[in-house]
Amino acid sequence: MMDTSFAALDDTALQKGKAWLARAKVRPTKQRSSLAALLVGDGENRHVTAEGLFLAAKSSGEAVSLATVYNTLRAFCDAGLMNEITVDATRSYFDTCTEDHPHYFWEDSQELTDAPAGEVAFSRLPDPPQGSEIARVDVVIRLRRK
Amino acid sequence: MMDTSFAALDDTALQKGKAWLARAKVRPTKQRSSLAALLVGDGENRHVTAEGLFLAAKSSGEAVSLATVYNTLRAFCDAGLMNEITVDATRSYFDTCTEDHPHYFWEDSQELTDAPAGEVAFSRLPDPPQGSEIARVDVVIRLRRK
DNA sequence: CTATGTGCAAATCTTTTGCAGGCTA
DNA sequence: TAGCCTGCAAAAGATTTGCACATAG
Predict the structure, then answer these.
(1) C-alpha to C-alpha distances, A53 to A44, A56, B11, B30, nearest whole angstrom
(2) What's the domain count of chain A?
(3) pLDDT tens track, chain B, 146 positions
(4) Range of the domain at A67
(5) How many angstroms is C1' of C1 away from CA of B56?
């Protein structure tokens, strides 16, 4: 249910986190820097729920309130640093990769991961109905344990 | 936000609704028959939210409680009569078409509709990771007014 | 008649918000 | 210093559940 593999919260990770915030002109408060470090401190893409990130912060020793985690994830999305992915009607997932790419959703563990790059392609896409344009195409490959 | 075009609740629609329930061996109570008539009474596919169906029932004169609408939609899904579609983290949508097909999601009106049949095709799909199989591939084309 | 469904209200769960105090630029 | 940020608790929505009553087969 939660992504347990977060970046370690060391100085290197903190620097990377702060650089990430600076790139989007997001003010680096203590809480935001910690969360950023957990998210991008090791250069990996992450798919998190608010609850998962909250628990990760807590167990890494950084006390951040759940409300702040929500507000911060929202702020990161508004700043273009993350994307919200809709795969489950009851929970929001946030992705540190902001490009439009396909996902695997593991129905057993409720985990969200990237589908292998370049392995999904459309051969046909409809023209958008008149007066509209395609904002994004979400592809979620739902996996079930066999 | 809600689908306002529901089938009229006349005798023909009721018969169709009851037949639909019978096909899946779902007990045709008064409320279920009414909701089924609204959903499939005219043979069209429908994409509804619980709230939307609840309001449609109410304005067609059939008093059904919101809790029952939720329970009923859940029951229809369990019986294989409908599918839940995840497009919005805050609301659940239900589709009377149970085949795996792509959708348009109109971001302005929050409406969900079918994308034109046959207009979406994959040229490549990844092999499912070992030990897993693909349960479904959700494709949601998000549209924005231009 | 018996199992199942219904309605209401209350509970639950996720996410947002108001406000007083804290911290960054 | 001024304005944005944080934390807490409370609010807000969507959905589910407990329980007494109703009803289909």
Answers:
(1) 15, 5, 53, 46
(2) 1
(3) 334 578 988 889 999 999 999 999 999 999 999 999 999 999 899 999 999 999 999 999 888 999 999 999 999 999 999 999 999 999 999 999 999 899 999 998 999 999 987 777 666 777 888 899 999 999 999 999 88
(4) 11-94
(5) 35
